[in-house]
């Protein structure tokens, strides 16, 4: 989310904020886990760079903001890119990383007016993924409009590289779409797909959130008082996927293992949710997830990117 944040926060504060009970469990992370988190955050950052989401098949991934050096140094190329082809302006890429032995689906966060419309389309939509499952309409629609071509590319690529893992990543709106995409792809046979969601807003009702949590292999990150993961509101029937990887280090700082707390529960007030109402004063916290994750984004709010 970019210039959309002030509008979203205004809506949130007007509606109020519910406070259910939390589920308090925590664990520490390991140094090798931290390295993986930083690596996948750079794949989320790469989705903001125009040369990647309007790139050519076979092109190397690059970040002009210099915030994805690990991705640039890997043997990684674009297999498929998508942008400006749907009403939601869902953008991103599928990449083949031969160094990591992974196929990566990465979604860009908010940039355009059409993205903003997806951000604030708060009503639920019923899904056939589990009994009683409902998702946020705008986020699900953003995945649904690219679902068929992206799924076909992933299936074809993994058929050629059957020992590669599938990893789905995104930041902000991209993280919301990535969460639902990973859930859907798992239901279609990619049961071990990994999800790395940075600064994701809430996407699901309790039934769907619990279903995604039970699928496993979910890494959902929040940062200090970032307001975006506090939206849509708990009072609107939305909760988070568990666990939460809560980053406590300040903006523009190197993250150590001591700076990441792992918290369980769809609602847990030991993490980001417990830092109070979503506030415009905390918008800067939204940008920093191991890197300046949206560093490649251009200024302004176009109708489409």
TrEMBL record:
* Transmembrane regions listed in the UniProt entry: none
Which Pfam family name is an example for this entry? Lipase3_N
Q: Which UniProt keywords apply?
A: Hydrolase, Signal
Domain Fungal lipase-type, which positions? 105-234
Does DNA repair show up as a keyword for this record?
A: no
The leader peptide range reads 1-18
Keyword check for Hydrolase: yes
| UniProt xrefs under InterPro entries | AB_hydrolase_fold, AB_hydrolase_lip/est, Fungal_lipase-type, Mono/diacylglycerol_lipase_N
Residue limits of the Mono-/di-acylglycerol lipase N-terminal domain? 14-78
GO biological process, alphabetically ordered? lipid catabolic process
| A GO molecular function held by the record | hydrolase activity
**Listed name of the protein:** Fungal lipase-like domain-containing protein
Q: Could you tell me which species this protein originates from?
A: Talaromyces rugulosus
